[in-house]
Amino acid sequence: MLKWLLLAIIVIHGLIHIMGGVNELGITKIQELSGRTLFTIPSNLQMVLGVLWLVAVVLFFIAAFGLVTNQQWWRSAVLIAVTVSQILVIIWWPDAKFGTIANGLIILGLALYE
């Protein structure tokens, strides 16, 4: 059961990262996201960080695939995904702070999963 709960959290959290990516890349404007950051981000770096939101999505999905298929590397993939995610959460703290809860639950699940 823990496997499926962890999988759900990983996938849902990954999907939520799509919102950050499309918002920061200007693909669409999500009204609920203010775009405020803890510090000013230069416009040239904003595009890179927008792509990084989508990289986190891919990393979470790779980790989810590895978990479902019982690959040993899924743990490394999810640790990298959570690290990238948490960096983005810290930068966009006003909007993304609750992502820390999801990242914490994923780390807890990682520690408990055999």
Pick out its properties:
single chain, 114 residues, mainly alpha, 5 helices, 75% helix, 0% strand, elongated
Would you spell out the secondary-structure blueprint of this structure?
Blueprint: H1 2-24, H2 43-68, H3 74-91, H4 93-96, H5 99-112
Helix pairs in contact: 1-2, 1-5, 2-3, 3-5
Kindly, what is the distance between the CA atoms of the first and last residues, rounded to a whole number of angstroms? Answer: 12 Å
What fraction of the residues are assigned to beta strands by DSSP? under 5%
Category from helices, strands and their pairing: mainly alpha
User: How many separate domains?
Assistant: 1
Question: Which regions contain 5 or more consecutive residues with pLDDT less than 50?
Answer: none
Report helical residue fraction. Answer: over 70%
Give the helices and strands as they follow along the chain. Answer: HHHHH
Mean pLDDT: 95
Biggest sheet record: none
Count of DSSP-assigned helices: 5
What's the overall geometry?
Answer: elongated
Using the CA coordinates, give the radius of gyration: 14 Å
Total strand count, please?
0
